[in-house]
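Hey, can you fold this one?
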Amino acid sequence: MVKMDMGDDYVATEITDSLEGIVLTKDGKEPQKEIVFVTNQERADVLDEIVRYNILQTLRKGIEDTLTTKTVDEATGDTIIRQRVVRRDALSVVEIVKMSPDCCHDSEEITKNQVYHHLPRLIEHGYVIKYGTVTKGKRSTDYYRRTAKGFMLTTGAWGTEEKRIREKLEGFTDKMLETFNIKLSKEKREELIELSVKRAQMQYAWRTKIADMVNLDIATKETLSMYEMLLDYYSVGSKEYMDVINRIREILFPEG
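Sure. Predicted structure:
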C-alpha cells in the first residue's frame, strides 16, 4: 500500500524532483552562505547594472518545485510517499527569464540573451555559481544559484543614489504609516521620506567601516543583526545624523 502525504511550502536544501539526476559542480557541492558583506567597490559596481541586479533578485525568489521522499512504515510495511511543495533557488536560464517579471526593478523583463550575457560577470565576481547540469536524453540543462542567500552591499551606487533609495523607502514608509495608523499630511509625509533618504545616505557612508570588522567566515543572519546594531551605535556620534533622527521623531510622534 502506498500513502501520500502532502507537506507545506519551504525552501529546498535537497535535490528537488525537477533536478533529479543532476550532476553538481564542485562549487555546487559547497553549502550556500547565509550572508556575504560586499565591501569592495569594484565588486559592488557589478550590481550597478540593472539586469545583473534583477538576475540576482530572480535567483533569490526562486521557482516552485516539489520534493518527494519515500519511507517504509516498519509496523505495516507500507511505503509512505511524502511530497512537499518547495521553493527551488537553483534555476536554468529559461526559468530565470520566466520568473523575472515578478522580480525586475526599474526595467523591462529580462531576455534570454541578457541572461547569457550577464551571468559570466556575476559568476566572475562571486555572486552566482553554476550549480550543476541535468541531462535528459540528448538535452543538457545548466542550473545556476546564488553563492549566498543575502548580500549586504556597503559601498556602490545602490546605497547612495537618491532616486533608488527613495523608491525603496516610499513603499515601506506608506506601509508603516498604514500599519501603525499614523496620519500625516501630504507635506509631512514628503518631509518624512526626504529625511529618511538623508538618514540612509548618511548611514551608508559608515557601513563599510563596520563591515570591515566582520569575520566574513562566520557571517549569519545573527551577524547581520549585530552589524545593524553596531552601525546604529556608531551613527549616533554624528550631530547631523541625530538632528535628522530627532526631526523624524517629531513628525511621527508630535505629542512626544
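Residues 186-211 form the longest helix (26 residues). Let me know if you want another pass with a different chain boundary.
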